[in-house]
Amino acid sequence: MKFITLVAALLVSAAAVSAAAIPVHVKDAVALQEEQIQPQNPAGEPAPTSFKSYIVVFKSTVAAQSIEKIEREVSFLGGRIVHRYNTVLKGFSAYIPGSVVSALKTNPAIDYIEEDGTVSAL
After folding, report:
1. Is the whole-model pTM more than 0.70?
2. pLDDT, tens digit, for every residue of 64-94?
3. pLDDT tens-place string over residues 20-38
4. Of 114, 108, 47, nearest in space to 82 by CA
5. Residue among 102, 98, 118 nearest 110 (CA)
6. Which of these, 62, 95, 117, 121, has the minimum number of CB atoms within 10 Å of its CB?
7. Where are the domains of the chain?
8. What is the number of other CB atoms lying within 10 angstroms of the CB of residue 93?
9. Of the candidates 108, 80, 83, which has an alpha carbon nearest to the alpha carbon of residue 33?
10. What is the distance between the terminal CA atoms of the chain, rounded to a whole angstrom?
11. Three-state DSSP state, 41
12. Is the Cα dihedral 15, 91, 42, 97 positive or negative?
């Protein structure tokens, strides 16, 4: 758990440092790259209780088409993509059924999957 906290702190620090050094017009373009996804269920129903929120991070060498294919598969299997990450890392956050998480962990394109949660500094 301390390793995850350290990695999260480093990512936040790196993002803060790089954001301060980027011109405003570039920051706006980068912000447009990260897309907030609308829930798949138009009624706004909460995810089933058997679903948990996960962050899925891809290897840096994975093509965008491969990521999109995996996102479609997750949605098809009942998951709900909540947010895409494109700036500091390639990935997404989603509510995913446990059986789908198990299958994703065997995918060679995925670097790691973590259950989403609150991270705090020491």
Report:
1. no
2. 999 999 999 999 999 999 999 999 999 999 9
3. 444 444 444 444 444 444 4
4. 47
5. 102
6. 121
7. 2-115
8. 19
9. 83
10. 12
11. coil
12. negative
Output DSSP code: residue 48: P
Which residues on neighbouring strands pair with residue 85, listed in sequence order?
A: 91
> One-letter amino acid identity for 43?
A
Structure tokens at 15: 């993002």
Distance in angstroms (rounded) separating the CA atoms of residues 116 and 53 = 5
User: What is the 3-state secondary structure of 63-97?
Assistant: CHHHHHHHHHHHHHCCCEEEEEECCCCCEEEEEEE
CA dihedral 58, 76, 45, 106 (to 10 degrees): -40
